[in-house]
Design goal:
Number of helices: 3
Order of helices and strands: HHEEHEE
Helix content: 40-55%
Distance between the termini: 23 Å
Number of strands: 4
Mean pLDDT: 81
Radius of gyration: 16 Å
Structural class: alpha+beta
Length: 120
Amino acid sequence: MTERFGASGIEVLRNAFSGGREGVPKNLFDVARMTFLRDGYHLPFLFLLRDYKPVKILVTPIDNRAQKYLQMRHLAAEVVRYGADAAISISEAWMTPLAEIKSYQSPSEMPTRKEVLAGC
């Protein structure tokens, strides 16, 4: 992780967990936004927390929509395994006006799509 973000980036990430209930999600989103703006993309991350402290950070890329459902089962098992009491997911998503989408298309398939950073 240090190779990717550098020592200062790791320190920023470490400090993100010092904000308590209200601060941690905002701080993590700020770190994600910084990465998104620097790199032009953002790998999906899932932060597993216990008492607002990290117990596991997972990078959760998927190659296709079918993998998403298999991954959800795996991630649920990880939550139990680490005894997490909260999870914060941050990833990029795509948007496009509904009027431009044809049957069975998703926004990621549209040339007019816009990228956004989403957290939940």
